[in-house]
Prior knowledge:
Blueprint: E1 8-11, H1 17-28, E2 32-37, H2 40-50, E3 56-60, H3 66-80, E4 85-88, H4 104-132, E5 135-140, H5 153-173, E6 178-185, E7 188-189, H6 191-203, H7 208-216, E8 225-226, H8 227-238, E9 249-252
Parallel strand pairs: 1-2, 1-4, 2-3, 4-5, 5-6, 6-9, 7-8
Helix pairs in contact: 1-8, 3-4, 4-5, 6-7
Amino acid sequence: MGELDGRVACVTGGTRGIGRAIAEAFLAEGAKVVINGRSPEKGEQAISEIEAGENLHFISGDVTDQAVCEGLVDQTVEHFGKIDIMVNNAGGGGDAAPLVDMSDEIWNFVLNWNLNHPMWCMRRALKYMIPQEWGRIINISSMYGKTVIPTNSHYVTTKHGLNGLTKVVAHEVGAMGITVNALCPGGILTDVMNTDGRVAAEALGMEFQEFLDMMAAPSAIKRLNEVEDVSLVAVLLASEAGAGISGSLINVDGGQVPY
């Protein structure tokens, strides 16, 4: 028996990185999973590589669009009959710049990606979760939802906002059998880290491993986490074992942020 037998989950940004790891972990625990991503090609590749048969379904779409977010939830219910677990994982940053040079275009793009998209998905998913009196919402935030990084006001602001939204909604629906939590990863060894990190290392005149060691130095464990370190916490929150955890902002950063 898996921890998530009979459950249906939807994971935005689920074709790679943390989102894919969470989808695979949920499938291993018996859930049926819908993954979302912008690229149909990457979706088809993920479906092929994961090999979960009819338990895994891909829906393409850009979650910076409200209609896509709401349609994603509705299509999950249409395909698998219900939605029990909503994981709002898609997100990222835009071009870094001091606020004085930040364009409205980049600001609004990151706002939609990191904050409005989780809100749209949560709001729609709750329409289904409240009547069934059971649900799990997991927002993938960031250590920068608790701290700051200059020239990234758009990213930092949206992640702080996502943490606040998580706490508020947890109190709104907690008595209905629904939990709402956020995971706050630090540096994670994803494919993005492997590509963008190499570019950053080269710009700093460093070897890639030296760059990774520098990134991990502020942590207690002196290494960057793997995507599986995040996905296993997500399984706990999605399961019955996580029923007593709600409104929490859980660091998965190896101890970089001390609160």
